[in-house]
Amino acid sequence: MVEIIFKYFEIVVYTLFAINSAYLFCFALASLFYKPKKYKRSEAVLKFLVLIPAYKEDNVIVNSALSALDQDYPSEKMVVAVVSDRMKSETNLSLEKSGANVIIFEPESSSKAKALNYAFSSYANMDFDVVVILDADNIVENSFIATLNDAFVSGCNAIQAHRTAKNLETEVAVLDAISEEINNSIFRRGHIAMGLSSALIGSGMAFKFNWFKGAVNKLSTAGEDKELEILLLKEGIFIDYLDNLLVFDEKTKKESVYYNQRRRWIAAQFYSLSTALKWLPEAVRSINISYIDKVFQWTMPPRVVLLGLVFLIAGFISIYDINIAIRWALLLFVVVLSLAISVPMKMVRSLSLKSLIKLPKLFLLTILNFFRTKGAVKKFIHTPKN
After folding, report:
1. Does residue 106 share a domain with residue 207?
2. I need a labelling partner for 338 at 20 to 30 A (CA). Which of 18, 22, 150, 291 fits?
3. Domain with 183 in it: what CATH number?
4. Are residues 26 and 99 in the same domain?
5. Spatial CA neighbour of 362 closest among 315, 297, 313, 308
6. Closest CA to 242 of 147, 178, 344, 153
7. For residues 235 and 155, what is the distance between their CA atoms, to the nearest angstrom?
Protein backbone atom coordinates (compact mmCIF):
# COMPACT_ATOMS: atom_id res chain seq x y z
CA MET A 1 0.00 0.00 0.00
CA VAL A 2 2.83 2.39 0.91
CA GLU A 3 4.54 1.69 -2.40
CA ILE A 4 1.34 2.43 -4.34
CA ILE A 5 0.86 5.74 -2.50
CA PHE A 6 4.49 6.66 -3.11
CA LYS A 7 4.18 5.75 -6.78
CA TYR A 8 1.20 8.02 -7.40
CA PHE A 9 2.61 10.80 -5.23
CA GLU A 10 5.86 10.71 -7.20
CA ILE A 11 3.96 10.88 -10.49
CA VAL A 12 1.96 13.92 -9.33
CA VAL A 13 5.05 15.74 -8.04
CA TYR A 14 7.03 14.89 -11.17
CA THR A 15 4.23 16.14 -13.42
CA LEU A 16 4.05 19.48 -11.58
CA PHE A 17 7.80 20.00 -11.77
CA ALA A 18 7.86 18.84 -15.41
CA ILE A 19 5.25 21.46 -16.38
CA ASN A 20 7.24 24.21 -14.65
CA SER A 21 10.48 23.02 -16.24
CA ALA A 22 8.95 22.78 -19.71
CA TYR A 23 7.61 26.34 -19.34
CA LEU A 24 11.05 27.67 -18.44
CA PHE A 25 12.72 25.78 -21.26
CA CYS A 26 10.18 26.95 -23.84
CA PHE A 27 10.62 30.64 -23.04
CA ALA A 28 14.36 30.37 -22.46
CA LEU A 29 14.67 28.89 -25.94
CA ALA A 30 12.36 31.56 -27.37
CA SER A 31 14.57 34.28 -25.84
CA LEU A 32 17.35 33.25 -28.22
CA PHE A 33 15.13 34.38 -31.13
CA TYR A 34 14.25 37.75 -29.60
CA LYS A 35 14.94 40.67 -31.93
CA PRO A 36 15.09 44.15 -30.35
CA LYS A 37 12.66 46.61 -31.90
CA LYS A 38 14.14 49.67 -33.54
CA TYR A 39 12.06 52.83 -33.45
CA LYS A 40 12.53 55.69 -35.88
CA ARG A 41 13.85 58.92 -34.42
CA SER A 42 10.70 60.96 -33.83
CA GLU A 43 10.25 64.66 -34.48
CA ALA A 44 7.48 64.73 -31.86
CA VAL A 45 8.70 65.51 -28.36
CA LEU A 46 6.57 64.11 -25.54
CA LYS A 47 6.58 65.45 -22.00
CA PHE A 48 7.97 63.08 -19.35
CA LEU A 49 7.52 62.86 -15.59
CA VAL A 50 10.23 60.77 -13.89
CA LEU A 51 9.32 59.63 -10.36
CA ILE A 52 12.01 58.30 -8.01
CA PRO A 53 10.77 57.14 -4.58
CA ALA A 54 13.66 57.25 -2.08
CA TYR A 55 13.50 55.94 1.49
CA LYS A 56 16.72 56.63 3.46
CA GLU A 57 18.70 56.44 0.21
CA ASP A 58 21.11 59.34 0.90
CA ASN A 59 24.10 57.31 -0.34
CA VAL A 60 22.78 56.67 -3.84
CA ILE A 61 19.91 59.03 -4.70
CA VAL A 62 21.95 62.05 -5.90
CA ASN A 63 23.80 60.04 -8.56
CA SER A 64 20.53 58.45 -9.64
CA ALA A 65 18.79 61.81 -9.98
CA LEU A 66 21.75 63.30 -11.86
CA SER A 67 21.70 60.47 -14.40
CA ALA A 68 17.95 60.97 -14.91
CA LEU A 69 18.48 64.71 -15.39
CA ASP A 70 21.51 64.40 -17.67
CA GLN A 71 19.53 63.48 -20.76
CA ASP A 72 19.97 64.18 -24.43
CA TYR A 73 16.44 65.56 -24.39
CA PRO A 74 14.87 69.03 -24.07
CA SER A 75 14.93 69.92 -20.36
CA GLU A 76 11.63 71.79 -20.60
CA LYS A 77 9.98 68.54 -21.70
CA MET A 78 10.87 66.52 -18.61
CA VAL A 79 10.57 66.75 -14.84
CA VAL A 80 12.51 64.55 -12.41
CA ALA A 81 10.78 64.31 -9.04
CA VAL A 82 12.34 62.58 -6.03
CA VAL A 83 9.99 61.46 -3.27
CA SER A 84 12.16 62.04 -0.21
CA ASP A 85 11.15 59.81 2.68
CA ARG A 86 13.32 60.27 5.79
CA MET A 87 16.35 61.55 3.95
CA LYS A 88 18.76 64.18 5.24
CA SER A 89 18.11 67.88 4.60
CA GLU A 90 21.53 68.22 2.94
CA THR A 91 20.62 65.42 0.54
CA ASN A 92 17.36 67.15 -0.34
CA LEU A 93 19.24 70.42 -0.88
CA SER A 94 21.74 68.70 -3.20
CA LEU A 95 18.87 67.24 -5.19
CA GLU A 96 17.19 70.64 -5.55
CA LYS A 97 20.46 72.25 -6.66
CA SER A 98 20.88 69.54 -9.28
CA GLY A 99 17.51 70.46 -10.80
CA ALA A 100 15.29 67.74 -9.36
CA ASN A 101 11.95 68.46 -7.73
CA VAL A 102 11.98 67.21 -4.14
CA ILE A 103 8.72 66.07 -2.58
CA ILE A 104 9.02 65.56 1.18
CA PHE A 105 6.92 62.60 2.27
CA GLU A 106 7.26 61.05 5.73
CA PRO A 107 4.17 58.96 6.54
CA GLU A 108 3.78 56.88 9.69
CA SER A 109 4.35 53.74 7.63
CA SER A 110 6.29 53.96 4.38
CA SER A 111 5.82 52.12 1.11
CA LYS A 112 6.65 52.65 -2.53
CA ALA A 113 2.95 52.56 -3.45
CA LYS A 114 2.19 55.35 -0.95
CA ALA A 115 5.13 57.41 -2.18
CA LEU A 116 3.99 57.12 -5.80
CA ASN A 117 0.42 58.07 -4.87
CA TYR A 118 1.55 61.09 -2.88
CA ALA A 119 3.96 62.32 -5.54
CA PHE A 120 1.58 61.81 -8.41
CA SER A 121 -1.10 63.91 -6.72
CA SER A 122 1.17 66.95 -7.28
CA TYR A 123 1.29 66.35 -11.04
CA ALA A 124 -2.02 64.66 -11.86
CA ASN A 125 -3.53 67.75 -13.49
CA MET A 126 -0.46 68.65 -15.56
CA ASP A 127 -0.02 67.93 -19.26
CA PHE A 128 2.54 65.12 -19.17
CA ASP A 129 2.46 62.33 -21.75
CA VAL A 130 4.54 59.61 -20.08
CA VAL A 131 5.43 58.71 -16.48
CA VAL A 132 8.66 56.82 -15.73
CA ILE A 133 9.35 54.95 -12.47
CA LEU A 134 12.96 54.53 -11.32
CA ASP A 135 14.45 53.25 -8.06
CA ALA A 136 16.70 55.43 -5.92
CA ASP A 137 19.81 53.45 -6.93
CA ASN A 138 19.11 53.29 -10.68
CA ILE A 139 21.49 54.83 -13.20
CA VAL A 140 20.36 55.46 -16.78
CA GLU A 141 22.20 56.48 -19.93
CA ASN A 142 21.70 59.96 -21.40
CA SER A 143 19.66 58.54 -24.30
CA PHE A 144 17.15 56.91 -21.96
CA ILE A 145 14.29 59.43 -22.27
CA ALA A 146 14.84 59.99 -25.99
CA THR A 147 14.58 56.24 -26.63
CA LEU A 148 11.37 56.05 -24.62
CA ASN A 149 10.02 59.04 -26.53
CA ASP A 150 10.55 57.28 -29.88
CA ALA A 151 8.87 54.12 -28.55
CA PHE A 152 5.80 55.89 -27.17
CA VAL A 153 5.39 58.04 -30.27
CA SER A 154 5.50 54.78 -32.27
CA GLY A 155 2.51 53.46 -30.32
CA CYS A 156 3.77 51.79 -27.15
CA ASN A 157 1.56 52.11 -24.06
CA ALA A 158 3.66 50.42 -21.37
CA ILE A 159 7.38 49.62 -21.42
CA GLN A 160 9.80 47.71 -19.24
CA ALA A 161 13.45 48.64 -19.75
CA HIS A 162 16.33 46.18 -19.33
CA ARG A 163 17.37 46.37 -15.69
CA THR A 164 20.88 45.04 -15.22
CA ALA A 165 23.53 44.98 -12.50
CA LYS A 166 25.88 47.87 -11.85
CA ASN A 167 27.82 46.02 -9.11
CA LEU A 168 29.23 42.50 -8.86
CA GLU A 169 31.59 42.82 -5.89
CA THR A 170 30.20 40.00 -3.74
CA GLU A 171 29.10 36.42 -4.42
CA VAL A 172 25.52 37.29 -3.43
CA ALA A 173 25.52 40.28 -5.80
CA VAL A 174 26.72 38.05 -8.66
CA LEU A 175 23.97 35.50 -8.01
CA ASP A 176 21.36 38.24 -7.65
CA ALA A 177 22.50 39.75 -10.97
CA ILE A 178 22.35 36.35 -12.68
CA SER A 179 18.88 35.73 -11.27
CA GLU A 180 17.66 39.00 -12.76
CA GLU A 181 19.18 38.24 -16.16
CA ILE A 182 17.53 34.81 -16.15
CA ASN A 183 14.20 36.52 -15.52
CA ASN A 184 14.97 39.02 -18.28
CA SER A 185 15.53 36.15 -20.69
CA ILE A 186 12.53 34.02 -19.75
CA PHE A 187 9.87 36.52 -18.68
CA ARG A 188 10.82 39.40 -20.97
CA ARG A 189 12.81 38.51 -24.09
CA GLY A 190 11.23 35.06 -24.34
CA HIS A 191 7.72 36.36 -23.83
CA ILE A 192 8.08 39.18 -26.34
CA ALA A 193 9.50 36.71 -28.86
CA MET A 194 6.36 34.58 -28.37
CA GLY A 195 4.03 37.57 -28.74
CA LEU A 196 3.16 37.85 -25.03
CA SER A 197 3.51 40.79 -22.67
CA SER A 198 6.74 41.33 -20.80
CA ALA A 199 6.82 41.09 -17.02
CA LEU A 200 7.36 44.31 -15.08
CA ILE A 201 10.18 44.53 -12.56
CA GLY A 202 9.47 47.47 -10.25
CA SER A 203 11.74 50.09 -11.82
CA GLY A 204 12.77 51.13 -15.31
CA MET A 205 9.05 51.14 -16.11
CA ALA A 206 7.19 53.69 -18.26
CA PHE A 207 3.47 54.18 -18.85
CA LYS A 208 1.11 56.53 -20.64
CA PHE A 209 0.50 59.35 -18.18
CA ASN A 210 -3.29 59.36 -18.43
CA TRP A 211 -3.47 55.61 -17.91
CA PHE A 212 -1.20 55.78 -14.87
CA LYS A 213 -3.35 58.59 -13.45
CA GLY A 214 -6.24 56.14 -13.18
CA ALA A 215 -4.07 53.27 -11.91
CA VAL A 216 -1.78 54.78 -9.27
CA ASN A 217 -4.48 55.17 -6.61
CA LYS A 218 -5.21 51.45 -6.88
CA LEU A 219 -1.70 50.52 -5.73
CA SER A 220 -1.59 49.48 -2.08
CA THR A 221 0.96 46.70 -1.55
CA ALA A 222 4.71 46.01 -1.63
CA GLY A 223 4.13 44.36 -5.02
CA GLU A 224 3.09 47.51 -6.89
CA ASP A 225 4.66 46.23 -10.12
CA LYS A 226 2.47 43.13 -10.01
CA GLU A 227 -0.59 45.24 -9.26
CA LEU A 228 0.23 47.30 -12.34
CA GLU A 229 0.57 44.12 -14.40
CA ILE A 230 -2.91 42.97 -13.38
CA LEU A 231 -4.42 46.35 -14.27
CA LEU A 232 -2.64 46.51 -17.64
CA LEU A 233 -3.39 42.95 -18.69
CA LYS A 234 -7.05 43.15 -17.64
CA GLU A 235 -7.39 46.05 -20.06
CA GLY A 236 -5.52 44.16 -22.77
CA ILE A 237 -2.64 46.67 -22.76
CA PHE A 238 0.54 45.11 -24.11
CA ILE A 239 3.70 45.55 -22.03
CA ASP A 240 6.69 45.93 -24.32
CA TYR A 241 10.31 45.24 -23.41
CA LEU A 242 13.29 47.22 -24.66
CA ASP A 243 16.35 45.05 -24.20
CA ASN A 244 18.75 47.75 -25.41
CA LEU A 245 17.38 50.35 -22.99
CA LEU A 246 19.56 49.77 -19.94
CA VAL A 247 18.82 50.68 -16.33
CA PHE A 248 21.76 49.92 -14.04
CA ASP A 249 20.58 48.63 -10.69
CA GLU A 250 22.37 48.08 -7.38
CA LYS A 251 22.32 44.36 -6.62
CA THR A 252 21.93 42.81 -3.20
CA LYS A 253 25.33 42.39 -1.52
CA LYS A 254 24.45 40.59 1.72
CA GLU A 255 22.55 37.41 2.52
CA SER A 256 20.39 39.17 5.12
CA VAL A 257 19.25 41.75 2.55
CA TYR A 258 18.65 38.97 -0.01
CA TYR A 259 16.49 37.17 2.55
CA ASN A 260 14.32 40.23 3.27
CA GLN A 261 14.05 41.15 -0.40
CA ARG A 262 12.89 37.66 -1.40
CA ARG A 263 10.47 37.58 1.51
CA ARG A 264 8.79 40.70 0.14
CA TRP A 265 8.78 39.34 -3.41
CA ILE A 266 7.30 35.95 -2.45
CA ALA A 267 4.60 37.60 -0.33
CA ALA A 268 3.76 39.92 -3.22
CA GLN A 269 3.57 36.96 -5.61
CA PHE A 270 1.17 35.04 -3.35
CA TYR A 271 -1.02 38.10 -2.89
CA SER A 272 -1.04 38.92 -6.60
CA LEU A 273 -1.93 35.33 -7.47
CA SER A 274 -4.89 35.33 -5.08
CA THR A 275 -6.06 38.65 -6.56
CA ALA A 276 -5.53 37.66 -10.18
CA LEU A 277 -7.39 34.35 -9.83
CA LYS A 278 -10.66 36.22 -9.31
CA TRP A 279 -10.58 37.54 -12.88
CA LEU A 280 -9.14 34.38 -14.45
CA PRO A 281 -12.51 32.97 -15.66
CA GLU A 282 -13.14 36.22 -17.56
CA ALA A 283 -9.62 36.07 -19.02
CA VAL A 284 -10.31 32.53 -20.24
CA ARG A 285 -13.65 33.58 -21.78
CA SER A 286 -12.06 36.53 -23.56
CA ILE A 287 -8.96 34.49 -24.52
CA ASN A 288 -6.64 36.95 -22.78
CA ILE A 289 -3.53 34.80 -23.18
CA SER A 290 -1.11 37.25 -21.52
CA TYR A 291 -3.30 37.39 -18.41
CA ILE A 292 -3.65 33.59 -18.24
CA ASP A 293 0.11 33.25 -18.71
CA LYS A 294 0.71 35.76 -15.91
CA VAL A 295 -1.46 33.80 -13.48
CA PHE A 296 0.48 30.64 -14.31
CA GLN A 297 3.79 32.49 -13.79
CA TRP A 298 2.73 33.39 -10.27
CA THR A 299 2.04 29.74 -9.42
CA MET A 300 5.67 28.88 -10.15
CA PRO A 301 8.33 28.65 -7.44
CA PRO A 302 11.45 30.85 -7.66
CA ARG A 303 14.09 29.43 -9.98
CA VAL A 304 16.53 28.65 -7.16
CA VAL A 305 13.80 26.69 -5.36
CA LEU A 306 12.86 24.72 -8.48
CA LEU A 307 16.51 23.87 -9.14
CA GLY A 308 17.17 22.91 -5.53
CA LEU A 309 14.08 20.74 -5.10
CA VAL A 310 14.56 18.87 -8.38
CA PHE A 311 18.21 18.26 -7.44
CA LEU A 312 17.29 16.93 -3.98
CA ILE A 313 14.42 14.75 -5.20
CA ALA A 314 16.56 13.35 -8.01
CA GLY A 315 19.21 12.41 -5.44
CA PHE A 316 16.68 10.77 -3.11
CA ILE A 317 14.94 8.87 -5.91
CA SER A 318 18.26 7.51 -7.17
CA ILE A 319 18.68 5.74 -3.83
CA TYR A 320 15.12 4.41 -3.87
CA ASP A 321 14.71 3.38 -7.52
CA ILE A 322 17.35 3.97 -10.16
CA ASN A 323 14.84 3.47 -13.00
CA ILE A 324 12.60 6.30 -11.78
CA ALA A 325 15.70 8.39 -11.12
CA ILE A 326 16.48 8.52 -14.85
CA ARG A 327 13.50 10.73 -15.60
CA TRP A 328 14.30 12.96 -12.63
CA ALA A 329 17.88 13.27 -13.88
CA LEU A 330 16.50 14.26 -17.29
CA LEU A 331 14.25 16.83 -15.60
CA LEU A 332 17.22 18.26 -13.70
CA PHE A 333 19.11 18.52 -16.99
CA VAL A 334 16.21 20.49 -18.56
CA VAL A 335 16.10 22.92 -15.62
CA VAL A 336 19.86 23.47 -15.65
CA LEU A 337 19.86 23.87 -19.45
CA SER A 338 16.99 26.39 -19.28
CA LEU A 339 18.82 28.49 -16.73
CA ALA A 340 22.18 28.14 -18.49
CA ILE A 341 20.95 29.42 -21.86
CA SER A 342 19.24 32.33 -20.07
CA VAL A 343 22.46 33.70 -18.56
CA PRO A 344 24.41 36.22 -20.67
CA MET A 345 28.03 35.28 -21.28
CA LYS A 346 29.32 38.34 -19.39
CA MET A 347 27.52 37.03 -16.27
CA VAL A 348 28.91 33.54 -16.76
CA ARG A 349 32.39 35.04 -16.61
CA SER A 350 31.52 36.60 -13.24
CA LEU A 351 30.67 33.22 -11.71
CA SER A 352 33.15 31.62 -9.35
CA LEU A 353 33.27 28.55 -7.15
CA LYS A 354 32.53 30.80 -4.16
CA SER A 355 29.36 32.02 -5.88
CA LEU A 356 28.17 28.48 -6.61
CA ILE A 357 28.85 27.43 -3.01
CA LYS A 358 26.43 30.17 -1.91
CA LEU A 359 23.57 28.62 -3.89
CA PRO A 360 22.50 26.00 -1.28
CA LYS A 361 22.32 28.69 1.42
CA LEU A 362 20.26 31.01 -0.77
CA PHE A 363 18.00 28.05 -1.57
CA LEU A 364 17.40 27.46 2.14
CA LEU A 365 16.83 31.16 2.81
CA THR A 366 14.25 31.28 0.02
CA ILE A 367 12.50 28.17 1.35
CA LEU A 368 12.32 29.75 4.82
CA ASN A 369 10.64 32.79 3.30
CA PHE A 370 7.65 30.67 2.28
CA PHE A 371 6.85 30.39 5.99
CA ARG A 372 7.30 34.09 6.74
CA THR A 373 5.04 35.77 4.19
CA LYS A 374 2.20 36.67 6.58
CA GLY A 375 1.74 40.42 6.60
CA ALA A 376 4.84 41.00 4.44
CA VAL A 377 2.86 42.24 1.43
CA LYS A 378 1.40 45.13 3.41
CA LYS A 379 4.44 45.74 5.61
CA PHE A 380 7.26 47.96 4.37
CA ILE A 381 10.49 45.93 4.26
CA HIS A 382 13.39 48.19 3.39
CA THR A 383 16.33 46.62 1.57
CA PRO A 384 19.29 49.03 1.96
CA LYS A 385 21.73 49.31 -0.94
CA ASN A 386 24.85 50.07 1.09
Report:
1. yes
2. 291
3. 3.90.550.10
4. no
5. 308
6. 147
7. 16
